[in-house]
Amino acid sequence: MSVQVIVSQKGPLPITVSFNSPGTLQVILEVNGSCFTSSANTMTGIMVQLDGQNLGQANIFSNGANTHRTVVPAYYKAQLQYGVPHKLVLSAPPGTITDFNDFFTAVIHY
User: Cα angle vertex 52, ends 91, 46, to 5°?
Assistant: First the structure.
């Protein structure tokens, strides 16, 4: 199995990147990162959108406020086309905060 790094950078969110697929194939998109919230006992995370379609969210529950937390990695199946630019958007859902202390990674496994 091969891996292509799509995102590897500091925050804050949102992060938008365009990339090309290594072929017309089904891939697994993996998203990791960190974030925080100003409220205790809150679900926080990273929203994931690929080519305009909401795939879901990588989440972590934060018991404490104002502490950076690493989200649980999220994995999504996606069908990519070769020769077509693809667009990945990582964004913060309501209640989630990111800044330059947060780091984000997205890779495709194929």
Answer: 20
Domains of the chain (ranges plus CATH)?
3-109 (2.60.120.40)
Could you tell me the two tokens for 88?
């990945």
* Environment class of 92 (CB within 10 Å of its CB; exposed 0-12, middle 13-18, buried 19+): buried
Secondary structure class of 82 (helix, strand, coil): coil
47-85: pLDDT as tens digits? 999 999 999 999 999 999 999 999 999 999 999 999 999
Please state, in angstroms and as integers, the Cα–Cα distance from residue 79 to each residue in 26, 75, 86, following that order.
Answer: 4, 13, 11
Model pTM score: 0.96
Q: Which string of b and e fits 11-23 if b means at least 16 CB within 10 Å?
A: bebebeeebebee
The Cα 97–Cα 76 span in angstroms is 23
